[in-house]
Amino acid sequence: MYDKKTVEAFLKNQLQLFPETVVDTEEEAAEFLEDVCAVVCKNKKEVIEYLEDEMDVTGMTEDEILSSEEVFAIGDGRYLIVEG
């Protein structure tokens, strides 16, 4: 369900959400993302729409939303949202 770029982005940046490493391999990362039902958004607009439905982001700027600890930039314009 999660492609290689998505898994690598989470594996590399997991400490932005968690105080310690939760996964060590790409396989573990993919399983973890499936277990927590992480969401892949195709662009910034989709991230904002998703978080408006799931969290109170009232008054937050686009930059504040995109830099939230739950939001991981994949590097190709897509974003991963992991609710920890």
- Overall mean pLDDT: 95
How many DSSP H or I helices?
A: 4
> Can you tell me the number of structural domains?
1
Which parts are unreliable, with pLDDT below 50 for 5 consecutive residues or more? none
Global outline: globular
* Gap from first CA to last CA: 19 Å
Share of residues in strands = 5-15%
Which bin fits the share of residues in helices?
40-55%
Radius of gyration: 12 Å
Largest sheet: 3 strands, antiparallel
The strand order across the widest sheet is 1-3-2
SSE order in H/E notation? HHEHHEE
Could you tell me the number of beta strands? 3
Q: What structural category characterises the helix and strand content?
A: alpha+beta
Q: If you had to describe this structure to a student in words, what would you say it looks like?
A:
It comes from Pseudobutyrivibrio ruminis. This is Glyoxalase. The chain has 84 residues and is an alpha+beta fold. The chain has one domain (4-81). Helix content is 43%, strand content 11%. It has 4 helices and 3 strands. Helix 1 packs across helix 2 (26-35). The protein is globular and about 35 Å long. The mean pLDDT is 95.
Brief summary of the model shown:
This protein is an alpha+beta fold and 84 residues long. It contains 4 helices and 3 strands; from the N terminus they run H-H-E-H-H-E-E. The chain has a 3-stranded antiparallel β-sheet, sandwiched between helices.
